[in-house]
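Teaching soon. Invent one.


***
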Amino acid sequence: MAQCCLSRVSFLTGRHGHNTNVTDVAPPYGKLDDPRKPISGYNTYYVGKLMNSHSDENYNQHYPAGFNGTDLYYPGEYNTDLVKNKSLGFLDDAADNVNTRPFFLFVMPIGPHTEVVPTANGVVFTPPIPAQRHAHLYPDAKIPRTKSFNPSSPKNISYLKDMPRLNSTVVDYLDEFYRMRLRALASVDDIVDDIFAKLEQRDLLDNTYVIYTTDNGYHMGQHRLQAGKTSCYEEDVDIPFMIRGPGIPKGAVIKHPTNHVDLAPTIFDLAGIPLRDDFDGTPMPIKDQKKHQKYESINVEFWGADDIGEGKYGADSHVFNDTYKSIRIMGSGYNLMYSSWCTNERELYDMHVSYGQQCVSPWNTLHPTGNVNSLREALHSKYDAFYEKDMPQVFFEECVPGFIISKEGPQVTSMFGKTREEAKYDFLKGSHWADWA
């Protein structure tokens, strides 16, 4: 899910939003039960943003479940630098105890998040504020003018098909917004530099895995949108993931799709911890390409309504149909993105030509006999009747701001409401002879 708190829950739990029911940044749509569970057994440190609603009124009240202490309120300090200094202090603490207990450190600076300004009428999102030492950087940078940037003839659906084209004033504003994001990111670069220096200083670098990633992408002008996130398109869901550590091949690239639910299983796998039964994700094959089954699909989902735009011209971007389910499928010779919206509109993109729009074991669930393991195999004509007539379709009763199970479908935990063995027996009985003959 391309939004900050929601994606962090999926990272910490290894579970999709429809299983955690954390589908919004505010109640009543779920809560994070115990953020420490995926990394138990380690000295665990978390620095930076966790969830919303921490304020100067509640900063010294109960800390989050699973924590044994927290600091929340540092008026007058630049957040990214504060996060860096706290992280370096925790690294020293971890290094002092590493011979008796391994450590896990999660560093989550707010930058380059927009500045959240409270007003009498709610909050206003303004461009991020860089550290003073970086305020002069990138004076000529502009948003890359890709095919999806402020298109003359948009091809999107749902609320996006009615977005007006951005005028030059708005585009100039978004370019400056982009420069402010780059400047704010420069302080995040400082965090990376100083963490590596600290690991080297404490003789931990060669025995520590370092992962660099983020919670969501960001659009600015693409698809005629104001600054913001939450969409199913490439700008919001294609995020960086880099890892360095023992046994990681230098310069290796994983070319199949992964997402936030795969992060906790990957960390468990690297640490030699048995995977939890409730994980929706699977370990990324970052050390041994053959160790884990290669999955070709991931799902992207979101439930949302109302204020989606950020910045001066995004404050009035009110929509009530930003709820969708999307799937990304990548394999040999194909790279597809399909989405189904709460308006029951649908779209399909060939990502080889449309760049900019871009369950744990789906094929085993759909074809329990095990003879279909990829989209290419499923597209064989002998399965046409099965998919056209027998397959329940994704649908929504209406657009709602959270995961309300009665408002969407299909809701089955196994093949059409049957156990895997019952479904497999139906195939073998001959109800779908072409599937196994």
Summary: The first helix runs from residue 4 to 13. Residues 4-293 form a domain with the Alkaline Phosphatase, subunit A fold (CATH 3.40.720.10). Residues 413-437 have pLDDT under 50 and may be disordered.
